[in-house]
Specification:
The structure is a homodimer. By secondary structure, chain A is an alpha+beta fold. Chain A contains 5 helices and 3 strands. Chain A has a 3-stranded antiparallel beta sheet. The relative contact order of chain A is 0.15. The interface between A and B is medium-sized, with 26 and 26 residues. Chain B binds a DNA duplex through helix 3 and helix 4.
DNA sequence: AAACTTAATCGTAATATTGCAATAAATAAA
DNA sequence: TTTATTTATTGCAATATTACGATTAAGTTT
């Protein structure tokens, strides 16, 4: 087993669980808090801010993006991340 | 690894992550929603409500209790579960 | 006491998550 | 075009989660 039986629950329940799960790690909470504070930043800024290696931060960013909590836009050779207000407000506000 | 580096984050970040993680599974979302709807119930009621076996439900209840989201009181040979308003309001309201 | 009810725990298998070194990919600057 | 810069991906090891059958524990009823 080990696999969640998502098909037995409603879409709403699964979506809420997905969003909550994305926030269910202190590093991702810290990333979201930082993004709220600075409004937008690149991955390297978060690597400097957190006690985690670059690949680990990149992976956390990917999960937050998959959950729809953040979005990234290409900015030169860097990627500018910010909160996805549409999802965030639906979840939080 | 696989173990979260909780000691590198603040207590607030860890607590929020713990609460979010507890809600990060559709079964636990469903349990909370059901508890809000019926106000209070015993484990067996939830087993009848969800497509999961009794030990699985019991385990989810334990995690919700550990996170402080619900509390249980002995009621005959059953256990009456309800939302822990103190934690719930701090998290949600 | 014996039978029943209710829920927790144990044990175990399947799967997911976390973390990072090493590497790759993609753009920018020289 | 070589060299930086920046981020994503791969591969892997350690640990955590999910699920449930079997069993246990504790109270209730007969």
């Amino acid at each position: 087993m080990g696999a969640t039986k998502t098909d037995h629950f409603t879409d709403q329940q699964n979506e809420l669980a997905t969003l909550a799960k994305a926030l269910g790690h202190p590093a991702r909470v810290a990333i979201i808090e930082y993004l709220i504070k600075v409004d937008a930043c690149i991955c390297g800024d978060i690597v400097n801010e957190l006690p985690l290696a670059q690949p680990t931060v990149s992976q956390h960013l990917k999960e937050l993006k998959n959950a729809g909590l953040i979005k990234g836009s290409i900015e030169g050779n860097a990627i500018c991340y910010c909160i996805d207000d549409q999802t965030w407000n639906r979840f939080h506000g």
